[in-house]
Design a protein that fits this description.
Blueprint: E1 4-15, E2 18-29, E3 33-38, H1 44-51, E4 59-64, E5 67-68, H2 73-79, E6 80-84, H3 95-105, H4 110-123, H5 139-150, E7 157-161, H6 169-184, E8 188-192, H7 196-199, E9 204-209, E10 212-217, H8 219-226, H9 231-239
Parallel strand pairs: 3-8, 3-9, 6-7, 7-8
Antiparallel strand pairs: 1-2, 1-4, 4-5, 9-10
The structure holds adenosine-5'-triphosphate (ATP).
């Protein structure tokens, strides 16, 4: 068994002459909550697309969930979960239908889908709204449901792309409780966010600037290194 869920070495993506991701190298341990930060256009989405097997690196190497990002990228998709604000639930399906639909997409058996549906409805206390359209749920509930569904196939790693956008701090805090719970079960969490207070909740944080990882450490060490009181200040010092 490998100690790392993600291991990349000089991973690079070029679009023509432009280098969007420039030789990034890092390792993420199993069960770690890894924050992936950067200003707009720094290259986070491009990097995440390579890590999730959606885009082939131009050069460099890496292993994600035990699979090679160059040769075995199709297999990566079977062992990871993905949630973003943009790609989320079907609003015009009910809560239950969404769970069933994604369970099917992820290749679960009918029995597994039934079990997972019951477990998610119970754990998220959504049984009463199981037959309601997702469109009718508050945003915070939708996000918790989308997160649970992204783990319906028990993936080793969950990629969260700005999962808490648009909700108030209290609801974000609740979402982070769910993240901690998932990590507590040994799942690796790879999360991008624009909320710098959330960076404080991560075990380690990397900060990308213009395609390169300019800093990577625990929030406490980064604050010490940059003589800052907050991660917001660390971030501003790097991206300014
Ligand atoms: N398919 C593409 N072709 C050409 N350039 C691209 C392509 N995809 C991304 N880029 C460029 O690569 C750079 C990094 O983009 P990317 O979307 O990865 O940044 P990001 O850090 O995710 O930003 P944001 O937080 O705004 O989503 C940008 O300059 C973007 O214009």
């Amino acid at each position: 068994m490998q100690a790392y869920s993600i291991e990349v070495d000089h991973l690079t993506k070029k679009f023509g002459q432009f280098t969007a991701v420039d030789q990034i190298s890092f390792k993420v341990a199993k069960g770690e909550i890894f924050g992936f930060l950067g200003a707009n256009g720094a290259g986070k989405t491009t990097a995440m697309r390579m890590l999730t097997g959606l885009s082939k690196p131009t050069s460099g190497s890496g292993m994600v969930a035990g699979f090679d990002v160059i040769h075995d990228y199709e297999k990566i998709k079977t062992r990871i979960g993905y949630m973003s604000q943009k790609f989320s639930l079907y609003e015009d399906l009910t809560v239950k239908q969404n769970i069933r639909f994604f369970g099917g997409i992820y290749g679960l058996s009918k029995q597994e889908i039934r079990q997972k549906t019951d477990a998610i409805l119970h754990d998220l206390r959504l049984s009463e709204v199981a037959s309601k359209l997702v469109a009718s749920l508050p945003l915070g509930w939708k996000q918790r449901l989308a997160f649970a569904i992204s783990m319906v196939h028990d993936p080793d790693i969950v990629f969260l792309d700005e999962p808490t956008g648009g909700v108030d701090p209290m609801v974000r805090r609740e979402f982070w409780e769910a993240i901690y719970e998932a990590a507590g079960h040994g799942r690796t969490i790879f999360v991008t966010t624009h909320y710098l207070d959330e960076a404080e909740y991560c075990d380690r944080v990397s900060i990308m600037v213009a395609g390169k990882i300019e800093a990577l450490d625990t929030p406490a060490n980064l604050k010490k290194q940059f003589g800052s009181q907050t991660m917001n200040d660390v971030f501003l010092k790097l991206v300014r």
